[in-house]
Amino acid sequence: MRHLIPVFALLIGQAAIAGDERIMFKTVDVEAPIDTVWDAWTTEEGLTFISSRSNVELRSGGPYEWFLDLEPDSNGRRGGEGSRVLAWVPLRMLAFSWTFPPDVPELRDAGETTQVVVFFDEVNAGKVRVRLFKHGWQDGEAWRRGWDYFDRAWSIVLERLKAELEARE
Predict the structure, then answer these.
(1) Domain 2-17+25-168 is of which CATH architecture?
(2) Domain ranges of the chain
């Protein structure tokens, strides 16, 4: 199965480039070494750029949870509880499921998820292009609200990643 991961990732990328409206795409260039950018996405210490607390185990099916500094929802959740690592290629690609925020309670409470695939492309020594694809969208008003929420949220995540890592250099 692991040999299929790069093929899966390539297909996601091609669909987004072809204009499939069901795949969200975000990108940012970060002036930092590839291992620093990779660690920022794959370790609890690294994820402090966006979340003061997280639970990440880089293994198939392992947790990939960020806990945001928000009031807990009606079920006591504060972020990405239940999100899981789907696949990874070290220093190249990370894929994980992602839950919905309290802003979209009908999807969050139903346990609906989308999938996020993040590619790490070393442009040169010290510069990394991060490409994020989010797919698995369905039809309906709640899904549209989810899209709108994440369209803003993933932009903020990438902006914070860039600001935090470049401030360190």
Answers:
(1) 2-Layer Sandwich (3.30)
(2) 2-17+25-168
The structure's pTM equals: 0.85
| Structure confidence at residue 165 as a pLDDT band (50, 70, 90) | very high
Q: Report the interhelical angle of 34-42 vs 141-168 (nearest 10°).
A: 130
